[in-house]
Amino acid sequence: MDTRRPPVWWELGVGLVAFIACVSLSRASFGDKRAAAVANARDVVRLEAALDFDVEASMNRWLIEHDWLATVTAYHYAAMYAVTSIAVLVFLYLRRPTLYRWGRRSCLVLNVVAAASFAVFPVAPPRLNPDLPVVDTVARQRIWGTWGSPVGDSVNHYAALPSLHFALVVWVLVMLMIATRSAVLITLAAADVVLTALVVVATGNHYALDLVAATVLVAISVPPTRPAPPSRPRRRPGGWLGRLTDALRARAILLDPR
Q1: In this predicted structure, what is the pLDDT of residue 6?
Q2: Are 59 and 135 in contact (CB under 8 A)?
Q3: Are 134 and 127 in contact (CB under 8 A)?
Q4: Domain range spanning residue 65?
Q5: How far from chain centre, in Å, is Cα 27?
Q6: What residues have CB less than 8 Å from 186, skipping those under 6 apart?
Q7: How do residues 9-68 score in pLDDT, each as one tens digit?
Q8: 174 lies in a domain?
Q9: What's the pLDDT at 170?
Q10: Total domains in the fold of the chain
């Protein structure tokens, strides 16, 4: 396994290119994106209703009754997933270089697959679903860096499924479980997974099924990108079989015209 740290300038360049590519891909449109997103959202709601899993409206109703909590959850939604995922990549780069490339690859695959999903299967979040009485608490609180402020007006509003916010915090937990034995860090990451699940649904940005899809996204991003273990040298057979193998190799060398 490679223990060398790649140059910082290279990593920043790769990150920038990946970010631009993912944003461009997620915003790609095939036909009437809004109509497709609303239609797909209705399918998600019908499936949740059949599974008795439709909790978005009730959670949102409870949140808007607590204005201070709505502000806290809006800030969490806007920033926490990015802060924690970047922090883990920096931690791996500085403290676990043997695992850094795995972390970077899996995070890149996760984002690319999510961006492709948003382009191919756009889904309107509960706050933009005309069939649901859901209030957009993030916009109402006008949190900097979201669509409640000029900085976030260019975000893709039809990127509900899977929840990239939830996928990234689950990815953070998985990578920390691989990279460290710190019970404090792992417990904090697990608590953030639970908190993020509640926040993204209560704020009207995701359906409960989006969290399931996000968990599947992590499952198909982390294990396949694991580096291959170093190959072990072949052991020489013992006894007469070993002597015969050595003789055949010697003969092959003698007969090789090179």
Answers
A1: 72
A2: no
A3: yes
A4: 8-230
A5: 17
A6: 173, 176, 177, 180
A7: 667 776 667 666 666 665 666 667 889 999 999 999 999 999 988 899 999 999 999 888
A8: yes
A9: 97
A10: 1
**pLDDT value of residue 23:** 62
Cα–Cα distances (Å) from 65 to 105, 126, 129, 195, 256, in that order, read 42, 18, 21, 18, 84
Amino acid at 36: A
Question: 189: Cβ–Cβ under 8 A, 6 or more apart, which residues?
Answer: 84, 169, 172, 173, 176
**Alpha carbons 82 and 241: distance in angstroms, whole number:** 59
- Asked whether the whole model's pTM tops 0.85, one would answer no
For residue 162, whether the previous peptide bond is cis, meaning omega lies within 30 degrees of 0, is: yes
pLDDT at 144: 62
Residue 254 lies in a domain: no
pLDDT averages per 10-residue partition of the chain, 258 residues: 65 68 62 87 94 91 90 90 94 91 93 91 94 86 59 74 96 95 95 96 95 96 83 56 57 49
CA–CA gap between residue 74 and residue 41 (Å, rounded): 22
Retrieve residue 227's tokens.
Answer: 């580096």
CB 227 within 8 A of CB 100: no
Residue 247, in any domain of the structure: no
Q: How far apart are CA 63 and CA 142, in angstroms?
A: 16
Q: Does residue 253 fall inside a structural domain? A: no
Residue 218: closest CA among 166, 156, 158, 160: 166
How is residue 221 written in tokens?
């991003």
Do 113 and 217 contact (CB within 8 A), yes or no? yes
Which residues, other chains included, contact 254 with Cβ-Cβ below 8 Å and sequence gap of 6+? Answer: none
Cβ contact 147:139 at 8 Å = yes
